[in-house]
TrEMBL record:
<keyword id="KW-0732">Signal</keyword>
<dbReference type="GO" id="GO:0055085">
    <property type="term" value="P:transmembrane transport"/>
</dbReference>
<protein>
    <submittedName>
        <fullName>Purine nucleoside permease</fullName>
    </submittedName>
</protein>
<dbReference type="Pfam" id="PF06516">
    <property type="entry name" value="NUP"/>
</dbReference>
<feature type="signal peptide">
    <location>
        <begin position="1"/>
        <end position="35"/>
    </location>
</feature>
<dbReference type="InterPro" id="IPR009486">
    <property type="entry name" value="Pur_nuclsid_perm"/>
</dbReference>
């Protein structure tokens, strides 16, 4: 009898411990809970790539000062250079993610998984500077993207060895040394062919939410971006043959190309245009080049899969700090380094300034009319 009671006691304790362990395991593997007041709701999360220096040498500083982002919240896993998220009383926050694919992906995942913010209704504004195709715009212009295309996920052969060159005359001449990974067409035009098999990357091309894009364009399209234009930028862009390159900066809609390598020149610019056309089935228009956006969006996609982010609330803005190719008579190297006889493009300061100017109407409208925006993009 005594042993029987002892057995029941041990059994009860075991059941209790197992129940407690089950609760603990469930808590460890469950998604973040936003019932806790510590999970701060965010209306707009601005993602810049570099900061830490005063305006106009930082993508972040104009947003920080104009929005009064004075509340600092430390988040584990952010860049050691930018370890804090900054917020204001209107629930607008800012993350400086660092530059390049690896930094932005790591920082964005750290933000999403921190459990310090409720991001389920948050509008994400990815805002940074970029190079621009002179056929589509000029320095200081602000380009809202519909498509995000990854420049780097491809096969590459050195241009001196591409088919059709002296090193390999057995194939038709390639216009550049890039092709899709395992292209469908391996003999006639490999460079103009999509992959023949599904690739494991899942980040070659993204399309952003069209209603959000159109709403933002309606709010920002008439913003004056000439306030910080300067004689150096005006003189430099006048050397280009393209009408859009010569024009004053404005808000435009065209698409953006991401890759860690800063490509430059006419040939690689033409490849960016063709690559965009290929991946968007002719619907996209390449105009800006930068290092981060597909990686940032991939991290947001992972958050959306976990129910922590709404991908219909992501916008991408890139302002042009330089052209992606030289003007007639200029070398590609001098255009890239800004070290030629004519100097640089003069576009850096206007690009930094216009990040804030072009996006401010959108940010302010979300805050002022949050009762409409919180349910989705207003009609």
């Amino acid at each position: 009898m005594h042993s029987h009671r002892m057995f029941e006691t041990v059994l009860s304790i075991t059941r209790y411990l197992l129940a407690g362990a089950s609760v603990l395991v469930a808590a460890l593997f469950a998604g973040p809970s936003f019932a806790d007041d510590d999970a701060r709701p965010v209306k707009v999360m601005i993602i810049n790539m570099f900061g830490g220096t005063p305006f106009p040498f930082s993508e972040a500083s104009a947003f920080t000062s104009n929005l009064g982002l004075t509340k600092s919240i430390q988040v584990r896993g952010l860049s050691p250079d930018y370890p804090n998220i900054l917020c204001n009383s209107d629930d607008v926050c800012q993350m400086v993610a660092g530059e390049g694919h690896a930094n932005v992906a790591a920082s964005t995942m750290a933000l999403i998984l921190s459990e310090k913010f409720d991001l389920r209704r948050t509008y994400f504004l990815i805002a940074g500077i970029a190079g621009i195709d002179p056929h589509e715009g000029t320095t200081g212009s602000a380009a809202w993207a519909r498509y995000l295309i990854d420049y780097g996920i491809s096969w590459e052969i050195d241009a001196r060895e591409i088919p059709g060159s002296a090193a390999d005359p057995t194939f038709p001449v390639w216009p550049y040394g890039y092709a899709a990974i395992f292209p469908t067409d391996t003999s006639t035009q490999p460079w103009n062919s999509l992959p023949s098999i599904p690739t494991p990357y899942h980040s070659e091309m993204y399309q952003l939410n069209e209603p959000l894009l159109q709403k933002i364009l309606s709010l920002t399209s008439k913003v004056d971006l000439t306030v910080n234009d300067n004689p150096t930028a005006q003189a430099y862009r006048a050397r280009y043959a393209e009408a859009k390159a010569k024009a004053p900066p404005s808000v435009i809609q065209c698409d953006t190309m991401a890759g860690d390598t800063w490509f430059h020149g006419i040939k690689l610019g033409e490849r960016a245009t063709a690559w965009t056309t290929l991946w968007t089935n002719g619907k996209g228009t390449y105009c800006t080049t930068q290092q981060e956006d597909n990686a940032t969006y991939m991290a947001l996609t992972r958050g959306a899969i976990s129910g922590l982010v709404d991908l219909d609330r992501v916008a991408v803005l890139r302002t042009a700090s330089n052209f992606d190719r030289p003007y007639p008579g200029e070398s590609a190297w001098h255009s890239l380094c800004g070290c030629g006889p004519e100097g640089g493009s003069g576009g850096f300061v206007p690009a930094i300034s216009n990040l804030w100017i072009a996006s401010a109407p959108f940010i302010k409208d979300v805050v002022v009319h949050w009762d409409q925006w919180k349910h989705g993009v207003p009609k």
